[in-house]
């Protein structure tokens, strides 16, 4: 495979696939990586190229390590309380489990869910634009506001004025 890591580095690897895993709204391939000589977890959407080789491999050991030992570290989680406008209800129902969605009398949708404490969360939540209000935690709301402000500042000037 040719794989793009979270740092943006692209590497070519020979892997021995073991199993597919659906986690955090994405598919992962757990495999033995010959380059690392260890088990790794590869996010399927970041496999840029894939070629099936003619060679076969013997059965892998039965003692497959847990995900935490496969190059995947669980991020710290936080409980967030989100309020979505009815305009994005289709996305809310597509992207969150039904048990965490609470329809409100005014048509909004309240979602109480655990999310990772990392930069992915702010990028993801920004994709909802003004159709989302973060009710809790305050720190996440401030991070999202700061990110939105930085985006606005970057785009408030025309590209021509940025070059001068």
Q: What would you report as the Rg, rounded to the nearest angstrom?
A: 20 Å
Number of strands: 10
Tell me roughly what share of residues is in helical segments: 10-25%
Enumerate how many helices there are, as a single number.
Answer: 4
Structural class: alpha+beta
Strand order of the biggest β-sheet: 8-9-7-10
Taken from the alpha-carbon principal axes, the silhouette is: extended
Mean pLDDT: 86
Estimated share of beta-strand residues: 25-35%
Uncertain runs are none
What composes the largest sheet? 4 strands, antiparallel
- End-to-end C-alpha gap: 43 Å
Short description:
With 164 residues, this protein is α+β, with helices and mostly antiparallel strands.
Question: What is this structure's SSE topology?
Answer:
Layout: E1 2-4, E2 10-12, E3 15-23, E4 26-33, E5 38-43, E6 47-49, E7 77-84, H1 89-95, E8 101-103, E9 109-116, H2 119-126, E10 132-136, H3 138-155, H4 159-163
Antiparallel strand pairs: 1-2, 1-6, 3-4, 4-5, 7-9, 7-10, 8-9
Helix pairs in contact: 2-3
């Amino acid at each position: 495979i040719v794989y793009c890591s979270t740092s943006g580095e692209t590497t070519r690897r020979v892997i021995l696939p073991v199993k597919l895993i659906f986690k955090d709204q994405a598919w992962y391939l757990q495999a033995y990586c010959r380059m690392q000589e260890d088990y790794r977890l590869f996010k399927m959407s970041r496999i840029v190229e894939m070629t099936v080789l003619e060679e076969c491999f013997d059965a892998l050991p039965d003692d497959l390590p847990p995900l935490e030992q496969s190059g995947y570290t669980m991020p710290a989680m936080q409980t967030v309380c989100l309020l979505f406008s009815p305009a994005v209800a289709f996305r809310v129902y597509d992207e969150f489990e039904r048990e965490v969605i609470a329809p409100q009398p005014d048509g909004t949708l309240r979602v109480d869910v655990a999310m990772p404490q990392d930069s992915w969360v702010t990028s993801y939540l920004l994709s909802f634009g003004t159709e989302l209000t973060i009710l809790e935690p305050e720190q996440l709301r401030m991070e999202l506001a700061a990110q939105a402000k930085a985006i606005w500042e970057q785009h408030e000037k025309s590209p021509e004025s940025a070059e001068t």
